[in-house]
Design a protein that fits this description.
- This protein is of the alpha/beta class.
- The chain has three domains: 310 residues, Rossmann fold, CATH 3.40.50.12780; 72 residues, Roll (Luciferase, domain 3), CATH 2.30.38.10; 102 residues, ANL, C-terminal domain (GMP Synthetase, Chain A, domain 3, 2-Layer Sandwich), CATH 3.30.300.
- It is built from 14 helices and 29 strands.
- The chain has a nine-stranded mixed β-sheet, sandwiched between helices. A nine-stranded mixed β-sheet has the order 6-7-5-3-4-8-9-19-20, with helices on both faces. Strands 17, 18, 21, 22 and 23 form a five-stranded antiparallel β-sheet that branches.
- α1 packs across α2, α1 packs across α8 and α7 crosses α8.
- It is globular, with a radius of gyration of 23 Å.
- This is Amino acid adenylation domain-containing protein.
- One of its GO terms (molecular function) is phosphopantetheine binding.
- Pfam families: AMP-binding, AMP-binding_C.
Length: 525
Amino acid sequence: MTGSVGGPVTMNAEERLDDLLTRAARTHPDRPALVDGDRSWTYGELDEAVSSLAGRLAEQGVKPGDRIGVFIAKSAEAVIAIHAGLRAGTVVAPLDVRNPVVRISHMVRQGGLTRLLTVAASENVARKAVGGEEPPEVLPLEGGIGLLHTQEKAPAEPLPEPAREGGYVLFTSGSTGVPKGVLLSHSNVAHFAVWAAAETGLRPSDRIGSQAALTFDLSTFDLFAAAVAGACTVLMPERLKAFPADVVDWLTEQRITVLYAVPSLYVNMLERGGIGDAFPPGLRTLLYAGEPFPPRALEAWLRLAADRPVYNFYGPTETNVCTFLRLPATWTAAQQATIGSAIPGDVVDVFDETGELTSERGEIHVAGETVFLGYLVDGVLHDPTRQLRFRDGVVRRAYPTGDLGRRTSGGEIVLSGRKDSQIKRHGYRIDIGEIENVLLDSPEVRAAAVVAKTGAHEGELWAYAQGTVSEREVLGLLRTQLPLYMVPDRAVVVSAFPLNARGKIDRLTLAAEATSESSPLKETR
């Protein structure tokens, strides 16, 4: 793999995600497509369920280009609802039912979602989230799935042509205090799915262990690359993630052959799951993304994997996956780690602050087939890309990732941190500013800072607050506004913040501080 420019992927530029399922049902109608516990669907059965629900949506006035949220816990029903929304031509936004009501409300507003698909287990929360003095009733459709109208009016400003007939929205943490909607076109996601299925050699006999939340971009491989190959998607029960040994047992019992997960899950299976003593015999391909893999743990996994392929996929939600690296089996922790080079159809390179290519440390930019359409803010699309001239002399629409790195002489990219306050935690991208804004909105908090700790508490996220508030109240406030993965591990109330030479809060000092005067979140969760 050399250079920053990838070659073309053989696929229709207008490829639609719902076409992938239709084609799989026509080619492999009797092969298993989806497993959820003791329930299973063949491709023919899944396609029929999706078509039927899409038809019911059309009967209820849902039109191509409408924006629909899927407010269903990860399950077969959620998968069917996502596919049906896409088949109906809508812009589909998977939502996490575990989020606080206020955050769900933010997502509905930001995405301009006019309807939600839900089930009985989550409909009460859904009704609260859409607000209003009289929360609307849920209209039953079929298969236990119902339709709920939100208080949002259809956005006056139409989406650009690639999203007129539907698309995909994934929400990420935002520096303004509310989540941002990342709008991906059908072709953005389909391009990745088609390439990934070919690169990893997916085949109809494969069983993909789907552990990622449907709100997380890793899930697009589980759903759509599976459909490209006619492989089976097996949904892993959420409760297993806290018990690595049970995850290892599940991989064996379900005869999982391909796993795409965040490094923290792999590390837990290695350190607490006993996978070194009971490697799942069917597991043939390992993929990871979402956060750096600790070098020594990665080396240990490569020894366990032996000749099995191990891939590092890299890319922010805005590009899904834009670079990849198949790690050599002989790689060791003493060697330099890279995120590889661009997938075919994308171009990835490093630019300095003036927008010029650099061989030194700079910001990683991505152009090409997987780059999103833009952010949905209050229902309106905002495009943050810039026009840059790449190494081959071509000016392209490029997304600035915010990740810092440098280009090696062989054309691969070495990742070296962020240029802003974002961090990665358990694979989730978290903007520290969003957490701080929740605290600063409280009248009891005069000043706040959230830092990723270094030293003895490395890997932890701490919230510091100044004001008439207790440490427990700080954590309680954050839990009511944020998903659990964004809530800091500890809270510390201070009488004054340390300041740097510019008179601003000295975050480096806070990050390195080893105070014991704090409240561990684990005691109160």
